[in-house]
Each structure stands twice: as C-alpha cells, then as structure tokens.
Design brief:
The complex is a heterodimer of chains A (289) and B (377). Chain A has 289 residues and is α/β, with parallel strands linked by helices. Helices cover 32% and strands 26% of the residues of chain A. Chain A has helices at residues 80-87, 118-124, 139-149, 155-168, 172-175, 188-201, 218-231, 244-250, 268-273, 278-284; strands at 23-25, 31-33, 40-51, 54-65, 69-73, 97-106, 109-110, 125-128, 206-210, 236-240, 253-258, 261-267. In chain B, α9 (247-255) packs across α10 (260-267), α11 (269-289) runs antiparallel to α14 (340-374) and α13 packs antiparallel against α14 (340-374). Chain B has a 3-stranded antiparallel β-sheet with strand order 2-1-3. Chain B has a 3-stranded antiparallel β-sheet with strand order 4-6-5, with no helix packed on it. Helix content of chain B is 62%, strand content 8%. The N and C termini of chain B lie far apart (65 Å). Chain B folds into 3 domains: 10-57; 76-116, no CATH class; 119-374, MetI-like fold (Orthogonal Bundle). Classes of the chains: A alpha/beta (289), B mainly alpha (377). Chain A binds chain B through residues 88, 90, 93, 95, 119-120, 122-123, 126-127, 129, 131, 133, 135-136, 145-146, 149-150, 182, 184, 195, 198-199, 202, and chain B through 152-153, 246, 248-249, 251-259, 262, 266-267, 271, 375-377.
C-alpha cells in the first residue's frame, strides 16, 4: 500500500526535507497541512462537525500518514476526541452528531457515503477507549469476540489468534495460564492491554486510541507506551492525549487543536521544540491547558 | 465548684442534645413503627391463612400432610350419623359406604366442594402461569429491546411508553372481557375448510384457511389474556435492566465490527437477564392470583378431565379449559352456601396457593442468583 519507502523518522534524528510537513496559515488563520509526498491513509478534507446545534469542529484539514503514530493534543473540549471518533463512525451512535461540510477519506473512500459498510469500516479501524472496557467474559472470549462475531469458529485458528494478539499486546506471559478466568480480574494496566489485544485480534489497518493511559499509573502507562512503539511497525496509530510529554515521547507527528480548529500540525520534534504558531508555543510550554 | 465540674464537657466532641438530633430520633422511630406495622399486617394475613388452612392441609397422622388434598379432585362432602358416630365422607367413599351399610332414614347433609382435593386447580394454575409468563417475557423483552436500543427517542416513542404504563392501570375485569372478546370469540384457528358466517382467510398458496372462530374458553386464551395483563411490568423492568448495562459494553463490541443485534445479543442481554428475571417475579405473583381475567377465558368451575386427558392430537391441549386456584377460592367463598366445611376448603386452598407462589418466586430468585454469578460485571 505504501508507494515510496520513507526514511525512518524517529524524533531523535534530524528532520529531513522529505518528511517535513509544512503548515501554512490561510486567510482565516486556520492551519492547513499540505500533504507530504507520501500517501496518507486518512485524509481529513475541510471538515466541519456539529453535535446538534453545537458546532464543534471548524474547517479541519490534515492527513494521517501510514504506519506512524500521530498524536492529537489540545485542552479539554477542543474537538480532538470528536475527530477521532469520526474515523470509525462511532459518532453515528449519538443523535444529531454529523459532519456538515467536507469529507473524511480512508483508503481514498469517503467513509460517510451511504454505500460504505460501517461494520467493515470498524473492522479495519479499531478503537481503544479511555476507560478500559473489557467484557465480563474470560480473557480468551474477550480476544476472540471480534472474530466470533465475524463468523470464525475454528478453535485452532482462535487459539492462534489469542496467542498472537496477547503477545502483540505484551500480555501473554502474564496471563497465559489463566486465559479462561474473567477479564475483570486483571489490573487496570493489564485491562487496557487486554483491550488493545482485543483490538489487534481483528487485524485492523488503523488503531485509534482515545486517551488510553489517562486512567493508568505511571508504570502501566510506560508499558502501554512501549507497546505503542512496537505496534507502529504493523499498524497506523492515532492517539488523543492530554499528556504532552506522552505525545512527545510516543508520536511521530502531532496535531494541536484549540476550540475546534487545527492550529498546527507537524513533525513532533518541531511542534515541541520550535513551533511556528504562538498559540502552540503557549500550550506546549504550559502557559495554558 | 461542684456544679461547675458536673456541667463542664468532658471533651470538645461531646454529644449534645440538639433539636436536630431529637427530630432525627423521632423520625427513625416513626419509620420503624411504620415498617413493623406493615410487617404485622402481612403476618396477620399469612398467619390467619396458615392457621385456618392447616386444618385442610395437614393431618395428625403420618405423613402429616393431607396428601389427598393435593391429589384428588373436589368432591361433595356428606355428613351424617351412623351408629352414634359422626361421619364425614367424600363422594366416592360415601357411595361405597352406602352399598355396604344400611343407612335407612339417616339424615345425610351434603356440602359441595368441601371434600376431596384441589389437584386439578393446582395443575391449572401452574399451566396458566407457565404459559402466560413465557409469552409475556418473550413479547416484553422484545418490545423493551426495540424501545430502548433501536427506536429514536422521539415524542411518539415516549407516548408509546406512556400507553404501556397506562395498560398497567386497566382493571383486570376489563382484561378478562378483552380476552373474551378477542381470544375466545374471534381468534384465528387453522382449518382445512372455510367456516360459514365467520371471517375466513385463505392462507395462500396452501389450501388451509384461517377461520376466525375464536379459541373458546381454553388455556391459550387465558395465556394471552394474562400475558397482556402483566406485559407493562415486564417491559418496564426489562427496559430498566437493559439501561443499567454500561454503555462501554455496547461501544466496545460495536467498535470491533459487530452489528447492533450481535452486540445486544452477546454483550448486553445476558447481563440484563438477572434484572429482568427479578421483576418477572412480581409478574408471576400477579398472574397466578388473578381471577377476573381467567373467569371469562380459561377457567371452569368444575371439570372432570385433566387438561391432557382425552385428547385427539397433542395440540388440542392448548384448547382445553382448566380449573384454577383463585377461581376456586372465589367459587367456594361466594357461589355456594357457607358453613364450617367450606371455610376449611377456602383457607386450605388459599394456603396452597400462597405456598405455590412462594415456591415459584423462590425458584426464580435462585435462578437469578445463579445467573448473577455467571454474568457478573
């Protein structure tokens, strides 16, 4: 799916011209990111979003690159979770929530068109929620839930997937001898990793994470961040976080939102070391938040 | 100086008698008194039934329970004097006795329904409860799922909810008449030929006809009537139970690519079941005890055959009428002359009825506890 190979861009290497995303201010003062030369998996194209009569997002344009971690940061209520939930159409569950202008394209398909199968979309775009919600079933049944509802019943295949997903979520060693005990018997950090394992069991292309570590202690948080770093080899990850240091540690690109507008979107290093926009600078240096 | 020492507080946090504290003490006593008086009234009712009913249910010799009361059909009681001893016998016994002994001109008093047992009534009530609760739970849970999960929360849906609640206020006699008019007189029966003078629809393309002749006084008419009576309770309780399942379960399963029904069936409904069953206990008690609805639709005063006797096909059992416990109490209490013998049967029947309802409720509670253990969150 990738057209060109990209130079590895970790935040410790110098920023090269080929992977810099330039942000230019348009007359209204909104930033719009010019897409990088590489293909973006998710394209947000001049999107306005409303909850009923409450206008939440204003003219947001950005592109999420493949197999990288993109972070959305910004103060509470700035619309970052709203945009995230648009990507797998979870906002459809809320009465009166809709995109009023613009479109969101994933794999070059406008996902809000009528012909799009929401079920298929959600299988390819997985989500990890802020409050970990393991089902009150056994660990095994939690992981195989996504496959069972898709009709996979072959026990051998299910066993394989359980082991693969738990290894992928760095949880296998801790739970391998109690797969049939309740998922609720795990600690908070383990539960969140179980939810991540459950999400990767259906092998999505994109994983959306809505403040996955906000309810976890620092040690569990560190484990999840390490996991995200491993996962980005195989999955495209979009993470919403309140924690700026986490965004700086974990992401390749960062988008800063404020009051429903995208203020700046660039390589993480630039956002945190040398932001172009004064509002961004005020936020990342902690002067407001 | 002594007075000063007596009134000085021992420490800073010492309790003092304040107006608020006095009021609280009075309120607590009031609540306690009310609760205990309610308990006392309940105990009084149960106690009276137990004491007076035990004359019919228990006996002094082994096996201490009057098994005949539970296994025989109601009979007439014959009271007379023979050889100076007062004798009481049921129909069958009396007929045998009359053949073997010479009664001559002895005066025999007969009392209807005062001998024998209430076995057909027990069977009838159990069948009615089982069938109507099954139908009520099926229809009620389905309606609750639609109302709380699928429908848009518009004013129209709110008015549907209100009308379901209103159904709970309809008198049970009205339900009986409704059941009589709809199920007994007008319900469809499948037949191979159309019937004259009634609405007959052909079930295209089969050569079977749907004849709206009604189900007559039967189990099935009683089932549907009682089910509709208890439906508001079941729907309200099911909606509450579904709402109490956390939203995170639904979101989690939808985010994995489940359809809404898959999400409800596998991740919401199992966890709502304990709550649904708890509230259906109320429904069971109500369904078992209602007389008016079954009076018009399912119950006979007396019937010599049990529902499963004398059937041509297995499905004919649906169209049999039954005897029922609450109706029997009504008949024995008000349709026949009262005396000490009928009083014994009345209280005995009431006692058995309460025992059966308690047993069914207990098994429902046990089932709910078992489910709660399996589906805990």
């Amino acid at each position: 799916m990738k057209l060109m190979s990209e130079p590895t861009s970790s935040t410790s290497e110098p920023v090269t011209r080929s992977d810099r995303v330039t942000t230019a201010a348009d007359p209204k003062g909104n930033a719009s990111a010019k897409p990088s030369p590489h293909r973006n998996l998710i394209e947000v194209d001049h999107v306005d979003f409303c909850y009923g009569s409450n206008h939440t997002l204003f003219d947001v344009t950005l592109g999420i690159p493949e197999k990288k971690v993109t972070a959305f940061i910004g103060p509470s209520g700035c619309g970052k979770s709203t945009l995230l939930r648009c990507f797998n159409r979870m906002n459809d569950l809320i009465d009166g929530a809709r995109i009023v202008k613009g479109e969101i394209r994933i794999h070059d398909v406008n996902i809000h068109r009528h012909e799009v199968d929401v079920i298929e979309l959600r299988k390819r775009v997985g989500m990890v929620f802020q409050k970990s919600n393991p089902f009150p079933k056994s660990i095994y049944e939690n992981i195989t839930y996504g496959l069972r509802i898709a009709g996979v019943n072959n026990k051998v295949r299910l066993d394989e997937v359980v082991e693969k997903s738990l290894r992928g979520a760095a949880l296998w060693d801790e739970v391998k001898d109690r797969l049939h005990t309740s998922g609720l018997g795990l600690s908070g950090g383990q539960q969140q990793r179980l939810c991540i394992a459950r999400t990767i069991a259906v092998e999505p292309d994109i994983i959306l994470m809505d403040e996955p570590c906000s309810a976890l202690d620092p040690i569990a948080t560190a484990k999840v961040e390490e996991l995200i770093h491993d996962l980005k080899r195989d999955y495209t990850i979009v993470i919403v976080t309140h924690n700026m240091q986490q965004a700086a540690r974990v992401s390749d690109r960062t988008a800063f939102f404020y009051l429903g507008r995208l203020i700046e979107y660039d390589v993480t290093r630039k956002i945190f070391m040398n932001p172009s926009n004064p509002q961004t600078e005020a936020y990342v240096s902690g002067r407001f938040g | 100086m002594n007075a000063n020492v007596a009134t000085a507080p021992a420490h800073v946090f010492e309790k003092r008698r304040t107006v608020a504290r006095t009021r609280e003490a009075r309120a607590v006593w009031l609540f306690r008194a009310v609760t205990y008086s309610v308990l006392f009234c309940g105990l009084f009712v149960f106690g009276t039934i137990f004491v007076r009913g035990s004359a019919a249910v228990f006996q002094t010799s082994f096996p201490f329970i009057n098994v005949g009361f539970f296994t025989e059909a109601p009979e007439s009681l014959h009271v007379f004097e023979f050889d100076g001893a007062a004798m009481q016998m049921g129909d069958r016994e009396f007929r045998e006795f009359r053949e073997t002994h010479n009664l001559g001109t002895t005066r025999v008093e007969s009392y209807v329904y005062s001998a024998g047992g209430i076995f057909p009534n027990i069977i009838g009530t159990l069948l009615l409860v089982a069938g109507s609760m099954t139908i009520a739970l099926g229809l009620g849970v389905a309606a609750a799922i639609y109302l709380s999960e699928y429908s848009a929360q518009s004013r129209f849906i709110q008015s549907i909810r209100l009308s379901i609640l209103n159904l709970a206020g309809v008198p049970s006699v009205v339900f009986g008449l409704f059941g009589f008019g709809l199920f007994v007189l007008f319900a469809p029966v499948i037949g191979s030929e159309p019937v004259a003078n009634v609405l007959s629809l052909r079930m295209w393309p089969l050569s079977l006809y749907l004849n709206f002749t009604g189900w007559n006084v039967s189990l099935i008419a009683g089932w549907f009537t009682l089910a509709f009576m208890v439906l508001p309770v079941v729907i309200t309780a099911s909606e509450e139970a579904l709402r109490s399942v956390p939203k995170g379960f639904r979101e989690g399963s939808l985010a994995l690519g489940a359809t809404k029904w898959q999400s409800i069936r596998t991740n919401v409904l199992p966890y709502a079941l304990p709550g649904i069953l708890t509230s259906s206990i109320l429904g069971i008690a109500r369904v078992a005890g209602e007389t008016a609805p079954i009076m018009f639709t399912a119950a006979y005063v007396v019937r010599d055959k049990l529902p499963w006797e004398g059937l041509e096909h297995w499905y004919d059992i649906l169209f049999q009428g039954v005897m029922a416990l609450p109706y029997h109490i009504y008949v024995v209490s008000s349709k026949i002359p009262q005396n000490e013998y009928t009083e014994r049967v009345q209280y005995g029947t009431a006692f058995v009825f309460l025992a059966i309802v308690a047993l069914v409720a207990l098994s429902s509670v046990l089932l709910r506890n078992k489910l709660r253990g399996a589906y805990r969150w």
